[in-house]
Design goal:
The chain is of the alpha/beta class and 200 residues long. It is built from five helices and five strands; from the N terminus they run E-E-E-H-E-H-E-H-H-H. Strands 3-2-1-4-5 form a five-stranded mixed beta sheet. Helix 2 links the parallel strand 4 and strand 5 (100-103). Helix 1 (42-60) packs across helix 2 (76-95) and helix 4 packs across helix 5.
């Protein structure tokens, strides 16, 4: 599976494409950063991000898109910009019928380093090791985008299997309740018939 990982942001939006193979093998395909000037109108900044994401979707044709979820930030303005950029990415992917999954920073860190409290340097080091990169992706947004793609490749199959298991369990519960209801109805009908026959 090929995944486009996106570390959203208005000033810098990290993009990384990773191919997943058998087991947990991963291979880098492309990495980069979309930059928009802070003095530009918000709508134009979002358009710039959308246009570049569209180009990446056309060029690399990922099968899924993984976006970092805005979890918590002290700067509300920064959080808003990050969320808006993430929304633009999700919209571009959705228009192509691509699945979009949002991963929290702690999920990404845990998947890549084994610790949800890892810092950016640790994430970058592990990304380089996992993908066999000799040069550090720069800036950190680029490394984070690759980490998001890796996280998705490793977590999504498990999430799908869990969802399928939950769906099967729910169906079994529904079927069991239906059988109980049918049995109760049949028992009630038999009892009523017996009472009617006794009165006769």
């Amino acid at each position: 599976m090929r995944v486009l990982g996106v570390d959203p942001g208005l000033t810098r939006c990290g993009l990384g494409v990773v191919d997943g193979g058998k087991g947990r093998s991963v291979r880098p395909v492309a990495v980069g950063v979309v930059r928009t000037p802070a003095d530009q109108d918000l709508s134009q900044r979002l358009l710039g991000i959308a246009d570049e994401v569209e180009r990446w979707l056309d060029r690399y044709r990922p099968e899924a898109v993984a976006v970092e979820r805005v979890f918590a930030q002290h700067n509300v303005r920064t959080a808003m910009g990050t969320a808006q950029a993430g929304g633009v990415v999700a919209l571009s992917a959705a228009r192509r019928g691509l699945p979009v999954v949002f991963h929290t920073p702690s999920e990404v860190k845990a998947a890549v380093t084994g610790s949800g409290r890892a810092d950016k340097a640790q994430v970058t080091t592990m990304v380089m090791r996992l993908l066999g990169l000799e040069v550090k992706p720069h800036p950190a947004d680029a490394a984070d985008a690759l980490a998001l793609a890796i996280c998705h490749l490793w977590r999504e199959p498990m999430r799908v299997r869990l969802a399928e298991a939950e769906a099967r369990a729910a169906e079994l519960v529904r079927a069991h309740k239906a059988r109980l209801a049918a049995a109760a109805k049949a028992a009630g009908t038999t009892k009523k018939q017996n009472e009617t026959g006794a009165r006769r």
